[in-house]
C-alpha cells in the first residue's frame, strides 16, 4: 500500500471531518467518512456553498490568498441533535495546484459547556441580586425597629449591649376614642390611616432629632437624646409634640376620619436594649418612659402635658399652664403643666384618663 493510500485511510478513520477543495470553484476533491456522516455525501459536481449556504466564497478565497487560513463555525442537526462544528480552512498545494484543506471538529460539547457556564453565571448573578435585595429589605426592617447605631452594633457583634441613657426626653402619644374607631371603621382604613399618620410623625420627629422607638396600636413613643446624646433633647420632644398636633389639625381639615391625640412628655433616664431572642425588638424602659406614659393620662384631647422638670427646660419657647398637682399611677403626686407653643392660643382643657 502506498503512503498516499495509508494517509487516505487514516483521514477516513479519524473522528474529524476532513475535505479537500479546489480553490477555483470550491469543488470537493476528497472527503472522509466523518464529513459525509455530518454533512452528507458530496456528488461529483458538489460545491462547498451547496453544503454551507451562509459561507461567503469570496471572503474565504480572499482569506486563503492573504493569510492562508479561514475559520468559522456552523450549527446543524444530526438525528434531532444539534451539533456545532468548527471549520478551519488552510491553503495547500497539490502538485502545483492550489487546494484548500477543510478540517471540521465537533465542538458541540464545548458549546454546551459554555452555555451551561453562561446559564450558571446568570443564575449566580440573579441569586446575588435577590440576596442583595433581601438583605436591603431586612436592613430596612431592622432600621425601622431600632436606631442605626444600634443596628450597626447588632450587625457587627450579633448582640446589643444594654445601655443607660441619662438624661433623655420621652414623648408618648395615643388617640382619643381609638377603641370606638376600631369598632366602627374598616380594619384596612384604620391601618392605612395609622400608617399615614405615623409616617408623618416619623418625618417630623426626624426633623427635630427624635428617634421613634415603637408603636403599639394607637400608642406612639419617640425619644430624643439617645443613642447619641443631645443637650436640647427636651426642646426636641416639645417641638415634635407641637408639630404632631398641628399636623393632625391640618389633616383633619381635609380627611373624613378625624383624629385627636393626647401627648405626655417627660425627661429622665431610660435603658435601651434589644429584648427577646427569637422575636426581638429594640425597646426603651425606665423612669422617663413610665413618667411620660402616666403624664399622658392627664392630657386632654389635642394637648401636650408635661411635668415640672421638662416644662422648665422648655419654658423659653413654650407657655406652660399649670393644671395643678395630679396623682400619677403609683400614688406619686406631681404638678402637671399643659404645654403650648408661644404663638398658640389657649384651648379648652379636659382631663381624660
From TrEMBL:
What would be one Pfam family of this protein? Answer: Guanylate_cyc
Domain annotation Guanylate cyclase: ranges: 169-296
CDD domains under this entry?
CHD
SMART domains for the chain: CYCc
Keywords attached to this Swiss-Prot or TrEMBL record, sorted alphabetically, are: Lyase, Membrane, Nucleotide-binding, Transmembrane, Transmembrane helix
Name the PROSITE patterns for this protein.
GUANYLATE_CYCLASE_2
Q: Where is it localised?
A: Membrane
Q: Which SUPFAM superfamilies does the protein's record reference?
A: Nucleotide cyclase, PYP-like sensor domain (PAS domain)
Protein name, UniProt field: Adenylate/guanylate cyclase domain-containing protein
